[in-house]
Design goal:
Blueprint: E1 2-3, H1 18-27, E2 34-35, E3 44-45, H2 48-59, E4 64-65, E5 74-75, H3 78-90, E6 95-96, E7 103-104, H4 107-110
Length: 111
């Protein structure tokens, strides 16, 4: 396992739930070689790229900003920003809950 030096200044010690960690571990096909250096976190990753995005969650860095007019919401990961921006485009194609009639832009949030 590759370790990085401990990060001294973090905003949030826990950024991943235990349920998310278990789900992530169950989907892995490769060994998790990268460990989060934040004391008490314990998150592991198969790629350094994913560890870097995770570390921004601890420091609350949000370098990826939504380009939709007047939104300016920031994200730690580029993927999350792109997924968010797609919501602005697909609002009219919402998924409707049959029970409460509330509209959701993404199927996973409806579920």
């Amino acid at each position: 396992i590759t370790h990085l030096p401990p990060i001294l200044q973090v905003e949030k010690k826990q950024v991943t739930t235990s349920a998310t960690q278990v789900a992530s571990a169950s989907r892995r096909r490769n060994e998790a070689r990268f460990t989060c250096p934040v004391l008490g976190c314990g998150s592991t990753f198969t790629r350094r790229f994913n560890l870097r995005g995770h570390l921004r969650s601890h420091t609350e860095q949000r370098p990826y900003v939504c380009e939709y007019p007047y939104c300016q919401k920031g994200f730690a990961r580029q993927y999350d920003c792109k997924r968010h921006q797609a919501l602005h485009v697909t609002r009219s194609q919402s998924n409707i809950c049959q029970g409460c009639k509330k509209a959701f832009s993404r199927l996973d949030t409806l579920n």
